[in-house]
Amino acid sequence: MSRILVVHYSRSGHTARLAKALAEELNRRGHEVVAEAIRAEREWSKWLLPLPLLPLLPVLPLYLASGRFRRFWHRHYFQPRQAIRPLAIPDVSGFDLVLLGTPKWLYLSWPVARWLDTVSGLQGRRVAGFATFCGPPLEIFEIEMLFEPLEARLRSLGAIPAARLAISSDHHEYFFFNEMRGLFRWLSRKAFARPLSDFTLDGVVGQSEVRRFCDEAAGEQNIPYGPNQPAFRQSDS
Ligand SMILES: Cc1cc2nc3c(=O)[nH]c(=O)nc-3n(C[C@H](O)[C@H](O)[C@H](O)COP(=O)(O)O)c2cc1C
Question: Of ligand 1's atoms, which has the minimum distance to the CA of residue 184?
C-alpha cells in the first residue's frame, strides 16, 4: 500500500472530476490517498489566457513537422505562471507517489507551473502527470507538447516522472460557437476513426486509460503508454 497525493488545478471542473475518479480508484485498491486542489489567487479572463500562447501559432507547422524544432521549442518557450493560494500540503516528501493534474493550456496551466515552483520535497519523488484537454490524444500536438516540458521540469527538480494520463474533456472555451470543440471532434474521427466521446472519462478508451494509469503509477504493472496500444494508433496530420 502506498501513500499517494493527488494534486490538481481545474478552471472549469473537468480535471477536478478526473482527479476525483483517480483518487477513488486508488482508494479502492487499498492505497492511502490525500487530495489537494490548487487554487489560483484570481482567475483570468478567458480572453487574456491565450495571449502568452500566440508565439507558437506562426511556427506550429514547423513544430508539428520537426522533432528537432520541438526539442528546441520545449527548451526555450515561455511558460506563464499564475499566483496561487497557500497550499495545504507545501511539502510532498511524505508521499510515495504524487499524481499531478492539469488542464492543457497548450502547455502546463499557469497555476500548475506555479505549484512546481512553490512545492518542496519533490527530490527523489515519483510524479505521474494527468491532464484533460479538449482534443483526442494526438501524439504530438496534445501529448508531447504537454508532457515533454512537464517531465523535463520534474527532472530538473529531482523528481522521477512515473506515468502519463491524457483524457479528453470534449470541452473548449473558444471561440464564440464552440468552434475549437468542433475542430477536435472532427480530428478525432480523422486521426483515430473514433468519436471524441470515446476518449473522455466516461468513454471506452478513457476508462481503460484510467485503469492503466493507476496500474502503472502505483507500480502494480508496467504497461506501455496508451498511444502504443492499437486503439490509439493515429497520425498527427
Ligand atoms: C488557454 C487555454 C488553452 C487551451 N489549449 C488547449 C490545447 O492546446 N488543446 C486542447 O485540446 N484543449 C485546450 N484547451 C481546452 C482545455 O484544456 C480543456 O477545456 C480542459 O479540459 C479544461 O480543464 P478544466 O475544466 O479542468 O479547467 C485550452 C483551454 C484554455 C483556456
Answer: 11
Asked if the structure places residue 237 within a domain, the reply is no
- Number of neighbouring beta carbons within 10 Å of residue 173: 14
C-beta of 168 in contact with ligand 1 (< 6 A): no
CA of 11 to the centre of ligand 1 (A): 9
List pLDDT tens digits, range 69-127: 999 999 999 999 999 999 999 999 999 999 999 999 999 999 999 999 999 999 999 99
Closest Cα to residue 167, out of 191, 141, 143, 185? Answer: 143
76 assigned to some structural domain: yes
- What's the whole-model pTM score? 0.93
Asked whether 174 lines ligand 1 (CB < 6 A), one says no
Residue 76, exposed/middle/buried by CB under 10 A (0-12, 13-18, 19+)?
A: exposed
CATH number of the domain that 164 lies in? 3.40.50.360
Q: Establish whether residue 132 lines the binding site of ligand 1, counting it when its CB lies within 6 angstroms of any ligand atom.
A: yes
